[in-house]
Specification:
Distance between the termini: 161 Å
Strand order of the largest sheet: 1-2
Helix content: over 70%
Protein name: Exocyst complex component 5
Keywords: Coiled coil, Exocytosis, Transport
GO biological process, one term: exocytosis
Shape: flat
GO cellular component, one term: exocyst
InterPro entries: Sec10-like (IPR009976), Sec10_HB (IPR048627), Sec10_N (IPR048625)
Length: about 800
């Protein structure tokens, strides 16, 4: 083993090489490889040592394994005996240590070699860098020289190019001058031919007679004509008056050229017509192109438009258009039929023009100009003629009868015609009409009608209003010729004002259609809405006045049957019966007027809603229009409110007259006195109270059914105050016993329960005070002073009641209360 250990280090080869340090180098990997290469030999030696001490599964000198395979723990003495000399756990460590030392030495040698090589490489790099710098400097000098050479070459090329361009310009100018000179010579030759003698066109060059060169001949003729006319014009400006005209010969040329141009133009137009009949669009386009040199082709354009079928037999076309729109009945054919006829006619016109536009686009050099002429001719001839027969402006002095449509028919026809004409202008605009202002042309057809439109609209609304009032009056007379009240009720209906509003809405729609700008629209709307305000105000005010007449008649009838006390029973009974009839008439008139006020309120609400939803926004563009309309509407509503207020006051007077009649006829002196026959007092409400409350309950039902809001509250408050005053006046006529005072208090309670439905605090308070004052009839005379002292605010009114006590004098109440009143 010792010999093997000693021979092992010398057997280790030198394993380091310079290539091992190239690339991704790691010392950990290097030494790991060295150790892994030596480990197998070390493991083999360890196994040899172990195999020498084991025999047949038994360890010599008391080993650990017995022959039977059973193990046992060795003793400490045996363990010491078997150990012998110490064996290193890693016996090759010395060899590895030597190997590492050799490796470090070799690494040092390799490092020195590398440093040397690096030093040599640095020297070589420095030498090469110096050579490279010199080469770059030489190259830069060469490049600068090349740039300078290129700059000189570019300058030379630019100079040569400019020279060539100048030469080219001179050559082009010379060629142009040569060509111009050649053309001028030809033109002068042609001019001399035309200047020979007036009307002599037989000796002209073949150019002017060759049909294949018509375009060239036309161009030359136009140039000659322009030159001759300009020369004559300039000469006339420069030569003084009276001097001989040296250019007189060119006048002959101008005459001959004009004659030739006319002949050539007629020839071309004839050829154009022939090609048009054959629908030879190519020839037509050729002729149109040549004719465009004569007055910009206006003759060809006009000739083409004039030869359209619709312009050949004008009268027949116009009659056909009128028959299509109006039929056999004329203006009475109906608005829907007129609208349908206009739509059909304008579609036909648009279709015809659309067909022509396809031909015009292929034939004429300037199709938009031809379309302008065609469309303008159609509008001025067909549309204008039709509108002249359709829009017959009525006289504002003698309006046409409403059975024939009245002014409204004219306005509706104007509106539908204008609407359809606007649609026509939009359709024609899509066909391409150049600079033609189609909208302005259509607008000009309606200027006369739009200027007087507001006056006709006002006349129409007034005519409708008069006819409606006559219709209502006739219906009222037919239903009941004797009853004016019924007539009034029928005229003030909730269905009439909505009809006025519908008329106005119809008029406003025409305003929107016929008004060209927002300011004009606002002005027209203001005028039309003022008509509605006038109609509503007159209708409601007149209706209220007529219903109020029935109240006046009932009052006159009531006053007619007021009789004195010294009459017979028969006369008194007849008068009472007549008074009952008058009272019934008054109650009916009251109901009619309150219902009329209700209808007025509903109508005013409809008017205000219509203004808010429709009129208000249309007035905003015009300064002050909205405020002015609001003021006018306020005045109209105020006039209706004033009429309603006066009528409601008269209604209250009618109610109170009936209350007074009932009290005077039903209230007896014995109602508030102790019975003379010794019977028990009656503490039920008096007959007068029952009848008055019953009557007033019917009145209250009508009020709650017909009035609302402030109208109802104001009416009930005034009625409560009048009732309080009337009852006080009635009770002043009687004397009261204590039992009568209790019955009076029962009546006051009934009246108080009734007026509590008014929801009027001031009225409730007055009737509560009445109940308190009724106590002055109930308490003993000696208790009156304490009662008055407890109610100082009603002391004055209570004294009036106290004087009505039946024991006022006998109990000397005045002297008893003198100190309290003082």
């Amino acid at each position: 083993m010792a010999s093997r250990k000693s021979s092992k280090p010398s057997a280790l080869p030198i394993i380091l090489n310079l290539d091992d340090f190239k690339g991704d180098f790691s010392f950990d990997k290097l030494f790991g490889d060295l150790v892994n290469n030596l480990l197998p030999s070390f493991q083999e030696e360890s196994l040899d040592l172990l195999s020498d001490g084991v025999i047949g599964g038994q360890l010599h000198s008391d080993g650990l394994v017995t022959g039977g395979g059973h193990s046992r723990m060795p003793s400490e003495s045996n363990l010491k005996l078997t150990q012998g000399p110490a064996i290193p756990f890693f016996p090759e460590v010395d060899a590895l240590l030597n190997l590492f030392k050799d490796s470090c030495k070799e690494l040092g040698d390799l490092s020195n070699q590398i440093d040397g090589k690096l030093h040599n490489l640095k020297k070589d790099v420095s030498v090469q860098d110096s050579k490279h710098r010199k080469t770059l400097a030489q190259l830069e000098k060469g490049v600068d020289g090349l740039f300078q050479s290129f700059a000189r070459l570019d300058s030379r090329i630019s100079s040569v190019g400019q020279t060539a361009a100048k030469i080219g310009d001179h050559l082009q100018s010379a060629d142009s001058q040569r060509e111009t000179a050649s053309q001028t010579i030809d033109l002068i030759k042609y001019l001399m031919e035309f200047n020979s003698s007036p009307g002599d066109l037989m000796e002209l060059s073949p150019l002017f007679s060759d049909d294949s060169r018509v375009a060239e001949a036309a161009s030359v003729a136009q140039k000659l004509r322009s030159f001759a006319e300009d020369d004559i014009g300039m000469h006339d400006m420069n030569v003084p008056d009276g001097t001989a005209n040296a250019s007189r010969g060119l006048e002959v040329a101008v005459i001959n050229l004009q004659e030739y141009c006319n002949e050539l133009e007629n020839r071309l137009l004839a050829r154009f017509d022939a090609a048009s009949q054959k629908k030879d669009l190519l020839t037509m386009a050729e002729c149109a192109k040549i004719l465009s040199q004569f007055n910009r082709g206006s003759s060809a354009m006009q000739h083409y438009v004039n030869t359209r079928k619709m312009f050949i037999d004008v009268e027949e076309v116009v009659n056909s258009d009128v028959k299509l729109v109006l039929g056999d009945q004329g203006l009475q054919t109906g608005l829907s039929n007129i609208s349908r006829g206009l739509s059909t006619l304008f579609r036909e016109i648009t279709g015809t023009i659309r067909k022509d536009s396809s031909i015009i686009t292929e034939v004429f050099p300037s199709p938009s100009d031809v379309m302008s002429i065609l469309v303008q001719r159609v509008i001025e001839q067909r549309v204008t003629t039709l509108l002249d027969k359709l829009l017959v402006k009525p006289s504002l002095v003698n309006l046409p009868p409403l059975v024939e449509g009245g002014v409204l028919l004219y306005l509706r026809i104007v509106a539908v015609s204008y609407d359809k004409a606007q649609e026509l202008s939009k359709d024609l605009r899509t066909l391409g009409c150049g600079d033609l202002d189609i909208e302005g042309l259509i607008e000009s057809l309606f200027i006369a009608h739009k200027d007087e439109y507001p006056e006709h609209e006002q006349a129409s609304l007034r005519q409708l209003y008069r006819a409606k009032m006559e219709e209502l009056h006739a219906e009222a007379l037919q239903s009941d010729p004797r009853s004016k009240a019924n007539s009034s009720q029928q005229q003030i209906s909730v269905n009439i004002v909505p009809e006025f509003v519908r008329w106005n809405e119809d008029a406003i729609s025409r305003c929107i259609l016929l008004s060209s700008d927002p300011h004009r629209l606002a002005a027209n709307v203001k005028i039309v809405f003022a008509c509605l305000l006038d109609q509503v105000s007159r209708y409601l005010t007149d209706g209220l006045e007529r219903v109020k007449e029935s109240l006046n008649e009932a009052a006159a009838l009531r006053d007619k049957f007021i009789i004195g006390t010294s009459v017979s029973r028969r006369v008194a009974a007849a008068a009472a019966s007549a008074a009952e009839a008058a009272a019934l008439a008054g109650e009916n008139s009251f109901k009619l007027f309150v219902v009329a006020v209700q209808h007025c309120s509903s109508s005013i609400a409809i008017l205000q809603q219509y203004f808010s939803n429709t009129i208000s926004r249309l007035l905003l563009p015009m300064d002050g229009a909205h405020a002015a309309c609001c003021e006018e509407m306020g005045n109209s509503v105020s006039s209706v409110e004033n009429a309603a207020y006066k009528g409601l006051i008269q209604c209250i007077e009618t109610v109170m007259a009936e209350v007074e009649r009932l009290l005077s006829s039903e209230q007896k002196a014995s109602d508030y006195r102790t019975p003379d026959d010794g019977s028990l007092p009656d503490y039920r409400p008096t007959t007068a109270c029952i009848r008055v409350v019953d009557y007033l309950s019917r009145v209250l039902d009508v009020i709650f059914t017909s009035l609302e809001g402030l109208n109802k509250q104001s009416f009930l408050t005034e009625l409560g105050n009048r009732l309080h005053k009337g009852l006080l006046s009635n009770w002043q006529k009687f004397t009261f016993s204590p039992s009568g005072g209790l019955r009076l208090k029962r009546d006051i309670t009934e009246y108080g329960e009734y007026v509590r439905c008014f929801n009027a605090p001031t009225v409730d308070e007055k009737f509560e005070l009445l109940g308190i004052m009724a106590n002055v009839f109930i308490v003993a005379p000696e208790s009156l002073s304490s009662l008055l002292e407890g109610t100082p605010n009603m002391r004055k009114d209570a004294m009036k009641f106290i004087q009505l006590r039946d024991d006022y004098k006998s109990a000397k109440i005045s002297s008893r209360l003198s100190t309290v009143m003082a």
